[in-house]
Every structure is written in structure tokens, then in C-alpha cells.
Design a protein that fits this description.
Blueprint lengths: L23 E7 L1 H6 L6 H19 L1 E3 L3 E4 L17 H7 L3 E3 L2 H13 L4 H15 L2 H28 L6 H7 L19 E8 L5 H6 L7 E5 L27 H6 L9 H5 L4 H11 L2 E6 L8 H8 L4 E8 L1 E2 L2 E2 L1 H10 L4 H7 L7 E2 L6
Parallel strand pairs: 1-5, 1-7, 5-6, 7-8, 8-11
Antiparallel strand pairs: 2-3, 3-4, 9-10
Length: 372
């Protein structure tokens, strides 16, 4: 199923506080946790691990390695590592202990450090942190170098995800599809917005991933009432109306963002998502959807992190948004419902609206995990 233009009516002129809506739509927001739930190793930590393993394997074969990020030459400290037996558990440890390595990319060095500290990494946030420093110092040449480093990583990531997606066959899970189709309950919505439980009028699938897994689910939904939007582009650009994968940062609410505009050098904006959105119709189509009619947001595997805060603020605080429902990740007796709300709260300027719109834990449920 390709992108279907939304054909909703114009939004009601009255405030939701003074009327009850007859129809309500559903905005299904899908992030990387959705792909992970289907067995895809699509996290930035998976990608970084795969890259390090390929570097070590090449070094073990040729006794040297170089690319724009890393250089390793055979030194006395490497002799006891030959041959190198690479696996998921020891790759980062081996790489960190190689004294003759030279990390040429400051961004990649930061990524490796953060993976060592936290066992995961948000590359887009790491990039923005570095960019902030150089923007503040007005070091334009360093900004351009970080842009080049991120673009190289973006290229590697796209190639990695293409191979990873081809590795597995995905069949839509009926129970997860059933969660997509759940009605919008009166007790989940803002007061005085709906007077009874509602069947969903139309579905808007907002895909933050580059992969086509969500498309397989969209193909199982009513075609006349379903829109699929690859808001950050797709590996197959035909799925995303020509939008190539967007990789960067999207938090214009950050207190330091004004310094980017004051710098008066365009290089600071090269990987800011807002400018990438203007290259295709996807963002405009999303705005048409949220402006048209009331909707409930349902979150499946999206971290709601600050790298997308500008867009999420627009969605969450919009007057047509009557509810935000989290399908959280359950791991044994622990779940990420509360930590997800920490991230959602950062996307709100109006904290009262945040408390009123987010559905309580007992009314939410874990997202079905197809690969388990």
C-alpha cells in the first residue's frame, strides 16, 4: 500500500471543551521499538556493534584498517589479539583495548563512549550535543566536519538496515493488528469531547522508522480509511513519496536553538529535521490530518525523545488531540510506561494539558511482541 492522501473534513470551529465530537480518528505513532518487537536488530547500538565487528574482521584479515571514522595499524599491542574471535559480547571491549587504533571522527568517538557507559546510544542526540558546543564557539569548520561525519554514519546505517530488513520475513501479528483497531473509549478522552465509546473513523499511521514493516500492517487495514506516512523517509523512497531517510535532530524548543540562527552560517542547519521535512509532502499531509478532525494518539514503540520534540509538541498540544495512549513495553514485572511519560512531558509546554491527555496506566496495555 502506498501513501494515501487523507480526505478528512475541516475541523470543527468550536473548542473541544464546549462540544462532543461525533467522529474521532486515530493517529498511530510507530517508532523503533515496533521494529525491535518484530525481531529486527534496528537500534543504533545494533548498528554500531555491526560496524565495529566488520572493522575488526577486516583488520584481522588484512592486519590494517582505515575509513573516514577509524584507522588501525598493526602494533605490538595487537599481536596477542590475532586471530581475533569476534562476537556480540566482546567486540566493543576488543576495540576499546586496541591501543594502536585512531578514531578520526569525534562523533563516532562520542558514540563509542556512550555505548560503553549506557549499553545504548542515541546518535542524533549525541550529534546535537556536539553541534551545540561548536555553534556556541562559532567554530564553523568543526560544524561542517561533524555534518560530514553524520552523513557518513547515515549512509552506513541505511545500508545496514537494508540488509537487516532482508534478513527476516515479517507477517503481521493478528493480536498487534487488533490493538491498532481498538475503539476509542470515552474514559480515555478529555472530558466533554466524546459522549460514548467510539469506533475509529480513520487511521493515520505515522511511521518514524525507515523500514517497511508497518506497511505490511497498513495493507491489512481498511484502505479507504487508512493513511500511511513515512515521516522520516524510507529505505525504499517509493514508500515515502520520494523522501529519502531523514537523519538528524528536530528540537527547535531547545533553549540553545536560537544560537543556530544567530550563527548566520547555513552549515548549522544541514541536519536539522525541520528543513528536511520541506523536501516532500509528508509533513504537510500530517498537518492536514491533525487540523481536520479530533484524534487519539496511540504510541507503539516510539521513545518520544527530544530529537523529535518539535513535531511531537505540535501533535500532542494540538486542540484536536483528545487523548494520548501508550502501548508500553513490558519486561517481566517492569515496564517503560513511566519513563515514556517523562519523555512525553518534555514535549509539552502546557503541563496541565499533558496530565489531562495521557491515559492512565491501568487503562493502557503492553504492546504485543510478535517475536516473543
Amino acid at each position: 500500500m502506498s501513501h494515501i492522501s487523507y480526505q478528512g473534513s475541516k475541523r470543527p470551529s468550536s473548542s473541544p471543551r464546549h462540544m462532543k465530537y461525533k467522529t474521532v480518528n486515530k493517529l498511530i505513532m510507530v517508532g523503533n521499538g515496533f521494529d525491535l518487537a518484530h525481531g529486527l536488530k534496528s537500534g543504533f547500538n545494533h548498528f554500531s556493534l555491526n560496524y565495529i565487528q566488520s572493522v575488526l574482521q577486516e583488520f584481522a584479515l588484512r592486519r590494517q584498517y582505515t575509513d573516514s571514522q577509524i584507522e588501525i595499524n598493526l602494533g605490538s599491542d595487537n599481536l596477542d589479539l590475532m586471530p581475533i574471535h569476534v562476537n556480540d559480547d566482546n567486540s566493543f571491549a576488543i576495540f576499546r583495548n586496541m591501543k594502536s587504533k585512531r578514531i578520526k571522527s569525534q562523533l563516532f568517538e562520542k558514540i563509542i563512549i556512550e555505548i560503553g557507559d549506557k549499553n545504548w546510544v542515541d546518535i542524533e542526540v549525541s550529534f546535537y550535543d556536539l553541534l551545540n558546543f561548536f555553534v556556541e564557539k562559532k567554530y564553523v569548520s568543526d560544524i561542517k566536519k561533524r555534518n560530514s561525519e553524520l552523513e557518513y554514519i547515515r549512509h552506513l546505517l541505511i545500508e545496514y538496515l537494508k540488509k537487516e530488513e532482508a534478513r527476516i520475513t515479517i507477517t503481521p501479528h493478528p493480536e498487534l493488528l487488533k490493538q491498532f483497531h481498538e475503539p476509542i473509549l470515552q474514559r480515555e478522552a478529555l472530558l466533554n469531547t466524546i459522549d460514548e465509546d467510539k469506533k475509529v473513523n480513520s487511521y493515520y499511521l505515522l511511521n518514524f522508522n525507515y523500514t517497511s514493516i508497518l506497511k505490511k500492517y497498513a495493507d491489512q487495514m481498511p484502505p479507504s480509511r487508512t493513511t500511511l506516512n513515512h515521516i522520516h523517509g524510507a529505505l525504499n523512497t517509493e514508500d515515502s513519496m520520494g523522501q529519502e531517510p531523514i537523519f538528524g535532530f528536530g528540537d527547535e524548543l531547545d533553549k540553545n536553538y536560537s544560537a543556530f540562527e544567530d550563527l548566520r552560517d547555513d552549515s548549522a542547519f544541514e541536519h536539522i529535521k525541520s528543513f528536511k521535512y520541506l523536501e516532500a509532502e509528508n509533513y504537510r499531509n500530517l498537518m492536514e490530518f491533525i487540523e481536520a478532525e479530533p484524534f487519539q494518539v496511540c504510541i507503539f514503540g516510539h521513545s518520544c525523545g527530544v530529537s523529535d520534540r518539535t513535531m511531537l509538541n505540535k501533535i500532542f498540544e494540538h486542540e484536536n488531540c483528545i487523548s494520548i495512549k501508550i502501548y508500553y513495553y513490558q519486561n517481566g514485572d517492569k515496564n517503560d510506561y513511566t519513563t515514556k511519560n517523562y519523555s512525553i512531558a518534555r514535549c509539552f509546554r502546557d503541563k496541565s494539558s499533558f496530565r489531562n491527555k495521557v491515559v492512565n496506566l491501568e487503562r493502557c496495555s503492553p504492546m504485543v511482541q510478535p517475536s516473543q
